[in-house]
């Protein structure tokens, strides 16, 4: 479109418009183009944090609803997470930055109550919205005492969700019990149980009547919900009648109380105490004062007595501190079988799951939440094996050191990895996962994705990352190749026959590494060939091949001397790992067959595998090398070390940086200045005609220059300028524009790019003739910013396909007719060069515009949500500010920007890994990955529905379940969130009448124990038709 002078009657009219004609037309045209482009962006891009994989960091509370079959975990950071069947997950976060101390489900409802350590109570509900449930906070409440009362009067220490479903009983530090109606959190002052009322009825001869201390436990009578048991810290227990508002029975225990349990028939109470004992008290009858029937210390002088207890006994803690103060144990006793389950982290809580349609049958599983993992024990299989968890897996069994994502795994490789993993899991129970709550409505994953994590102990773990659950598939250990510093007495913690207590290690969390040099730093898997390469902290690079059979073989090391005889350098870091000289038996799975050892043995900082060419390239802070793993020899070794860089010789395990030098570098990089906005004015009407001739071309390229910071060039004397940051293989035009050849590209921390032309022998001579590498190009970026990524674009501007991708018909062949382009991504900018001349073509500045620096970069395909036929390639970028960017290819223009990670979260930014379809993972804690998506089409997130079953038991259940009592009802009742608004007083009266008519057999129950000098103990006696109540952290079956 041309703009003529006749469009304005004279020059004065042009000036009145306030814009010169080209700029006015440019803005008009750009508005239309941008509107269409914005619509395309909305169809391609969309940022969402979708799901958190792994184990919650610092768990602090556990709850369970047998009726909903949901597990709830609260954390110290204020998060509340619900889990049901695999794929059924919900998460909520309290506004208050306070730890969750207790979690309680309301009986047979989709509501739960949380107590925080700031003494606030919060009501949550699972509310259906658009066919899926959402976890929402619907109320909060804090007890308020009389004016002038100390805080202890209202500080909540015990919570009981009453079986009526509309009452909460709150015991406090001051010894009072407040009764609150839910869901509105309305305090019923006339029904509160004050400490004075209780004290007045305490027998005169009770020695602790003057100070009963805090309320330790609240329990409901399983056969008469009008009665509750109040357990005080000093030891006294009182049975209180809610209707008459008076004490019915006093239980005068004198030892510090730890927990209380009521037997199924309501005739006995079991208490556990700080001296390691538990006591059995008879409370049936009209006697206002109970008598002690039995007292026992399970791990006392006569530990055999514990075997005479009823069918199941669970004992948490109770070990003498002098001998076993470092153990975290739960003892399981059934008949003559006695096992002390020994966990590697502190026990938070546990409960027991029972069989049957109404969860009243035999005990089936013991669920234990410890500080670092969730362990589920199968109680119905001989030996009580562990049930493998489909979620809540501790990713940090050993600390995560790196990660690698592979999309669209071929079915054959997937099945082979699964098969190898199944052989490692024979010690697990065959029972299915016992928690089945909710419906998983998420669609089946469109493809099979793998997430590989490297760990400090030298293991690589393979995870199924296709859907909501991050499921463990296979574990590879590299320690067997080397002679490590492992302790030969590591297995002494395992129980031996005849040992007392009979310890048995359970759980997989093991934070200790045999040798820190084993740590995995880089991983690269070829999904088409089954080759895997991993690199470690001590400069070791292993090449492995997937084998379905066990094999015994020797792995010989090839040394790569990256210093190449340069003088003046002395390595001050750790020594290399010694390789085993004798043959090693490797189980089915990935088996090492080649090893490269870098000298000096520094951390491997870059690693790339090309399985079609049978080559592996690796880099450290000293240089890079190329290894032929078919012929098992070095092809290339290049030293990139700067003569003034002595810090690179100290190693990561012994490095002490110079404070003075670090400060100097920091201040140099902070100095920035602004340059004025470049403006283009057309003041002469004669220039307008000339502008019209170039208008079409200019409209596509003209943009106002953003305000830019002046970036100081980095000094070549900066530390670690020779550190290799990225390595890249490409089949492109490197010597001339008519012949494409294989090539290797390396980018360093000092802004240098090295290119080598590779000559591969013919396929028939590949095993005999050597591969050669010849220097071809060298680029030095002006500002010497670290090079974090290199990419070659074909004639169509598309990234080159992965090795073997075209051979498997999973990608089109690259365009070799048009000219290729080289994209060099530094921390500060994206710069495109022509090939083979390597002349600058275009660039996108990042640091100069907003001061951020590139930390992670990946290539992704973004499909349109409107049509399956359209999509675009782009760069996914994470900056040091925690922002995510998408940069278009081949135009190298910024498309979208989203804040994702806090800039202070350096470890989270460093751990980020991108997928090929616009998703990503980063660590939000040592044990959790946050999954996010930049793609509007490719989103993996939980979609679950939880409903209260309308079915009711055919007979009245004899015992209140952990989330409340289940009773016979006259008609099917579906309890949803709106049911909380109804008046349930009539239902409560019917409930009470039904329970009082129950005639139950006497059954023993549970206690908690702590003796002086002995670790606190939790006991749970298991017999038919008994269950955990309220907040007590033990179970009775």
Automatic annotation (TrEMBL):
Family per record: Belongs to the WD repeat L(2)GL family.
Protein name: LLGL scribble cell polarity complex component 2
Species of origin: Oncorhynchus tshawytscha
Keywords: Cell cycle, Coiled coil, Cytoplasm, Exocytosis, Phosphoprotein, Repeat, WD repeat
Lineage, uppermost ranks: Eukaryota, Metazoa, Chordata, Craniata, Vertebrata
Gene3D superfamilies: YVTN repeat-like/Quinoprotein amine dehydrogenase (2.130.10.10)
Annotated SMART domains: WD40
Residue span(s) of domain Lethal giant larvae homologue: 308-385
Signal peptide residue numbers: none
WD repeats: 446-464
Highest taxon, organism lineage: Eukaryota
Chief location bin: cytoplasm
Gene: LLGL2
InterPro entries registered for this protein in UniProt: Lethal2_giant, LLGL2, WD40/YVTN_repeat-like_dom_sf, WD40_repeat_dom_sf, WD40_rpt
Keyword Cytoplasm: yes
GO terms assigned for molecular function: GTPase activator activity; myosin II binding
One cellular-component annotation, GO: plasma membrane
Localisation: Cytoplasm
Keyword match Coiled coil: yes
